Structure formats: structure tokens, C-alpha cells
Automatic annotation (TrEMBL):
Keyword annotations of the record: Transferase
Gene3D superfamilies: 1.20.1050.130
Species, as recorded: Euplotes crassus
Catalytic activities: RX + glutathione = an S-substituted glutathione + a halide anion + H(+)
Protein name in the entry: glutathione transferase
Residue intervals of the GST N-terminal domain: 1-79
Enzyme class: transferase
Gene Ontology biological process terms, A to Z: glutathione metabolic process
E.C. number: 2.5.1.18
Database matches in CDD domains: GST_N_Sigma_like
PANTHER family registered for this protein in UniProt: GLUTATHIONE S-TRANSFERASE (PTHR11571), HEMATOPOIETIC PROSTAGLANDIN D SYNTHASE (PTHR11571:SF224)
Length: 207
């Protein structure tokens, strides 16, 4: 199995974390930004001209969420009931919304504009974290998002915590908001602790 992406956590990190947790051997290929323009049009390797892509058993898998589900499925992290699958998609979509805004803000050069956008984003983060907090409170295990088994939801949320709350371009803001969500904060910390060896030893990347 081979995963190809930039040397970033980004969209690839939940895949890396799942493969690591399930002790699946894989090649973690990291493409230099300077090499990317020369290879991106190779449709055999990159069917959509984008990454991440996963090669497995002679097939190329594209589109991050589809890869997450595929890897979760073959690793035993994809619950088989409709409600849990819905909860995974809901969490993933809500993260996507927050990260779209985060990267828009991170690219702004005027500090005035940045401040304004942060003020707009904060209530959206609060709303999202409140939903996750409520879901965790109603779950039996406080170390799992769904039931008492590791699922794709845990890997996506743990990477969001590691790469955008603990570090990342708007980490101060995310940390401020998570400070008011005790159950979510403790879930995040416990999940990060479970994968401490992985997070301590992974190659360093900006986000
Ligand atoms: N919908 C795609 C989006 C993939 C995407 O935007 N990948 C970026 C890196 S995060 C990329 O390949 N950028 C280089 C390019 O588009 O040339 C997915 O979820 O995998």
C-alpha cells in the first residue's frame, strides 16, 4: 500500500493515523511542492490531478473522504450501521467547513481583515464544538465518538485536534473555544494521548 501526498498533515493525516493504529504497513510518499507541477498531469497516478492518492492492490484511490472510508472499512474502523455512518459524515463535513474558513483567514495579509474574519468564525467554531460536545455527552464511552470502539470519526477528530487545535494557523482561537467544552477537551486530550507515540515521532509539517 502506498499513500502519496505533500509533506503536510492536511487531508492525508487521518489516513496515516488509521494505517498506523491498525499496524498496516504502507509507504508514506511525500511529494515536494517543487516536483508537483511536473507530475500532477500523470493521470495514471493522480486521476484528478490532486492528492492524496492511495495505491492498493494495483488500484489508485482518490478523494480524501472516499479514501478515509475505504481505509476505515478494511481496517475495521467503519461501523456498519447507517446512523454511525451518518455521524461520521456529519463530523467530517463540519470539520471541512471550519478548515475552509481557517485557510481563507490564514491567507489574508491585512491584520485588520484577519481580525474581522476571526470574529465571524468564532461563533461558528462554538456552534460546532457544542454539537460535538453534546454528541460525546450522550455517548457511553467518553474516549470514543461512537459507542466504545475506535471509528473513523475518532481518527478524523483526533487529527483535527492535533493539527488545528494544538497547533496550526488558528490554534489560539480553537484552543480558546475548546476551553469552554470540558467533555470535548478531555476527549481530544485522551485521544491524542492514545496516539502519543505516533504524534511524537511523525515527520514535522506546518499543518
Ligand atoms: N476533493 C479532493 C481535494 C484534494 C486537494 O485539494 N488536494 C490538494 C492538496 S490538499 C492538491 O492536490 N493540491 C495541488 C493541486 O491541486 O495542484 C480531496 O478531498 O481529496
Amino acid at each position: 500500500m502506498k499513500l502519496t501526498y505533500f509533506n503536510l498533515y492536511g487531508r492525508a493525516e487521518p489516513i496515516r493515523l488509521m494505517l498506523n493504529a491498525s499496524k498496516t504497513e504502507f509507504e508514506d510518499e511525500r511529494i515536494k511542492h517543487t516536483d508537483w507541477p511536473d507530475i500532477k498531469d500523470d493521470k495514471e497516478r493522480f486521476p484528478y490531478g490532486q492528492m492524496p492518492v492511495l495505491q492498493h492492490n494495483g488500484k489508485v484511490y482518490s478523494q480524501s473522504m472516499a479514501i478515509y472510508k475505504y481505509v476505515a472499512n478494511i481496517s475495521g474502523y467503519l461501523p456498519d450501521d447507517a446512523d454511525s455512518q451518518y455521524m461520521i459524515d456529519e463530523a467530517a463535513e463540519s470539520i471541512k467547513d471550519l478548515l475552509t474558513e481557517t485557510f481563507k483567514i490564514a491567507q489574508k495579509t491585512s491584520s485588520e481583515e484577519k481580525k474581522e474574519s476571526i470574529t465571524t468564525l468564532k461563533p461558528k467554531i462554538e456552534t460546532t464544538f457544542e454539537v460535538w460536545e453534546k454528541n460525546l455527552k450522550s455517548n457511553t464511552s467518553k474516549d470514543h465518538y461512537l459507542g466504545d470502539k475506535d471509528s473513523l470519526a475518532d481518527f478524523i477528530l483526533t487529527c483535527f485536534y492535533a493539527d488545528h487545535v494544538k497547533s496550526g494557523p488558528l490554534s489560539e482561537l480553537f484552543q480558546e473555544v475548546v476551553g469552554s467544552c470540558a467533555t470535548l477537551k478531555s476527549y481530544f486530550e485522551s485521544r491524542a494521548d492514545m496516539h502519543k507515540d505516533y504524534f511524537d515521532s511523525r515527520p514535522k509539517a506546518p499543518y
